[in-house]
């Protein structure tokens, strides 16, 4: 992982540009929040905020990746979330006053910033928006739960099967990755060469079917080879 940059003052950064975006937030976001929102660009290794910082905004990753983490006594850190494109950072939330963790851009990253004051106001006054936000928050929590569950599995093949089973299209049963296999390996907590070897073994044994360069599905029950 990229080395951390020197941390800035313990406040959330202001947007680096005045660029407004009208179509980058989920469709259910009201117009006033779109107008209040802006784009923040972070360099690889740049700290976005420190634990204990006052909350000024909520973040959604547009491009790149951000890690949320807590420092531990031995100087290491516990990673709480690796937010990819389209993910909201689980901290800070619109009702948080301070953050309990720190955040760093793992690579060059663009984030959408939503100031918390108009965010809170919209949640309090717009029931449809509040319900839609609650649904997205619940889906985010479910995705994080699946990720934690997956990474507790000891075998690489078990992690692959879990990912395909839980992330495949509900109607077709097919998983089509929209990112490279090296990124899939990272999300599965393994090296790229390990994933390549495991995929080959699983395909040869009939435990996994490849439907394209980045497409996979589980075999129908009873069709797996001995």
User: Approximately what portion of the residues adopt beta-strand conformation?
Assistant: 15-25%
The CATH superfamily of the largest domain appears as: Jelly Rolls
User: Stretches where pLDDT falls below 50 for ≥5 residues?
Assistant: 1-12, 14-23
- Widest sheet, order of strands: 2-6-4-5
Query: Roughly what percent helix?
Result: 25-40%
Number of strands: 10
Which radius of gyration do the C-alpha atoms yield?
20 Å
Distance from first to last alpha carbon? 40 Å
If helices are DSSP runs of H or I spanning 4 or more residues, what is the number of helices?
Answer: 6
CATH topology of the largest domain: Jelly Rolls
Number of domains: 2
Structural class: alpha+beta
Explain what the structure shows.
The protein is α+β, with helices and mostly antiparallel strands. It has two domains: 31-149, Jelly Rolls (Sandwich); 155-217, Arc Repressor Mutant, subunit A (Orthogonal Bundle), CATH 1.10.10.10. It is built from six helices and ten strands; from the N terminus they run αβββββββαααβααββ. The chain has helices at 31-36, 116-125, 127-151, 156-167, 181-187, 192-205, and strands spanning 38-42, 47-49, 57-63, 66-71, 77-83, 102-105, 109-115, 174-176, 209-210, 215-217. The strands form three sheets. Strands 2-6-4-5 form a four-stranded antiparallel sheet, with no helix packed on it. It has a three-stranded antiparallel sheet with strand order 1-7-3. The longest helix has 25 residues, at 127-151. The termini are far apart.
Quick tags:
226 residues, alpha+beta, Jelly Rolls, Arc Repressor Mutant, subunit A, 2 domains, four-stranded antiparallel β-sheet, three-stranded antiparallel β-sheet, 10 strands, 33% helix, 21% strand, globular, disordered N terminus
């Amino acid at each position: 992982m990229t080395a951390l940059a020197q941390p800035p003052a313990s406040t959330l950064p202001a947007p680096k540009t005045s660029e407004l975006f009208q179509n980058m937030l989920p469709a259910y976001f009201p117009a006033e929040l779109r107008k209040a929102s802006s784009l923040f660009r972070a360099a690889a290794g740049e700290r976005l905020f420190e634990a204990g910082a006052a909350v000024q905004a909520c973040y959604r990753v547009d491009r790149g990746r951000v890690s949320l983490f807590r420092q531990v006594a031995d100087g290491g850190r516990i990673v709480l979330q690796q937010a990819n494109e389209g993910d909201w950072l689980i901290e800070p939330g619109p009702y948080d006053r301070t953050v309990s963790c720190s955040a760093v851009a793992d690579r060059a990253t663009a984030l959408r910033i939503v100031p918390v004051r108009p965010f809170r106001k919209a949640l309090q006054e717009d029931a449809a928006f509040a319900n839609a936000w609650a649904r997205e928050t619940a889906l985010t929590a479910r995705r994080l739960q699946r990720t934690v569950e997956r990474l507790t599995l000891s075998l690489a093949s078990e992690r692959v099967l879990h990912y395909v089973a839980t992330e495949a299209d509900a109607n077709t049963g097919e998983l089509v990755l929209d990112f490279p296999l090296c990124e899939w390996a990272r999300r599965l907590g393994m090296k790229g060469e390990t994933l390549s070897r495991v995929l080959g073994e699983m395909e040869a044994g009939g435990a996994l079917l490849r439907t394209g360069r980045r497409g996979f599905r589980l075999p129908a029950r009873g069709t797996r080879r001995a």
